[in-house]
Specification:
With 271 residues, the chain is of the alpha/beta class. Helices cover 41% and strands 20% of the residues. It binds S-adenosylmethionine.
């Protein structure tokens, strides 16, 4: 992240949002991630521990090491894991930078999981090269990333679209890439991984699933809201249109014929 700007910030509200985000998205994210053959997992960019809690509950036999750059996030992860009731013997939390781990021996993990992290990192290939350097041959890697240009609604909503485009623009200014999912295959290839697959995960909600659609519009509101503070501080006048964005989201939620569409991108590879 350049100049220390992080799109979503590290506020209490944002830390809570990361947990709620995973309650909603985990049912989609983990449809293709299979850790049933793994015992020792490394989660890169574990944030406040939302993914760790999900994975530790889903796979009772695994141990996860969570690597995180920000001390504040790691502290929150420690608290969240403690409150989850999961035994401390099943996880380790490490403060560190995935671009420069400082590990000088090969690390013994069966699988690496990285979710919504590369989008914030200026040099994604450097992270993958570093992982390739420190992980033993055969280690599997599962990556899930954003592809924000795919977001669409029917009917199209001008204030939402404008806000979204500004958010994408701002993320590139922070050194990240809101469309990084598109390049996962290319990064893995350049870093020397053997890529098994790279695939979009389309989320399309319409009148056939009204509760799912409503949940997604609500989630989207929080996702956009999470970037307002940082954007305002960096010269984007997004607050003045926020009431209109909320109004359009309410219209979409109340319109029986509206459609939500977004596709994130996942990859599975090995060293
Ligand atoms: C959007 S959060 C996602 C957290 C978690 N993966 C989840 O899905 O809930 C991205 C996290 O990656 C961390 N991060 C960013 N760059 C990193 C790096 N170079 N090394 C380790 N962690 C990093 C950030 O501090 C942040 O906590």
């Amino acid at each position: 992240m350049s100049e220390g700007i992080y799109l979503h910030g590290y506020s209490e509200w944002e830390q809570q949002r990361l947990l709620q985000q995973n309650d909603i998205l985990s049912k989609y994210i983990y449809q293709r991630i299979d850790l049933s053959q793994a015992t020792r997992i490394l989660e890169v960019g574990c944030g406040v521990g939302a993914q760790m809690i999900y994975m530790l509950r889903k796979y009772p036999g695994i141990h996860i090491t969570g690597l995180e750059l920000e001390e504040k996030q790691l502290e929150k992860a420690r608290l969240n894991l403690m409150h989850s009731g999961i035994s401390e013997s099943r996880y380790t939390l490490l403060l560190g930078n995935a671009t420069r781990t400082g590990w000088d021996t090969l690390q013994d993990f069966d699988a690496v999981v990285m979710i919504w992290v590369l989008e914030h990192i200026p040099d994604c290939e450097a992270v993958l090269r570093e992982l390739k350097r420190v992980l033993k041959p055969g280690t599997q890697i599962w990556i899930t990333e954003v592809y924000h240009q795919s977001f669409a609604t029917y009917p199209a909503m001008p204030a939402i679209q404008e806000f979204w485009q500004q958010m994408i623009h701002f993320q590139s200014r922070t050194g990240g890439d809101a469309n990084v999912g598109l390049r996962l295959g290319q990064f893995l290839h350049s870093a020397g991984f053997q890529t098994e697959w790279v695939a979009p995960f389309p989320m399309l909600f319409d009148a056939r699933n009204l509760p799912g659609r409503a949940e997604m519009f609500e989630y989207w509101k929080d996702l956009m809201y999470s970037s307002i503070d940082s954007m305002e501080k960096n010269g984007y006048n997004v607050l003045q249109n926020w009431a209109q964005v909320e109004y359009e989201l309410t219209q979409l939620k109340e319109d029986a014929n509206s459609v939500f569409y977004y596709s994130f991108i996942q990859a599975k590879a090995a060293i």
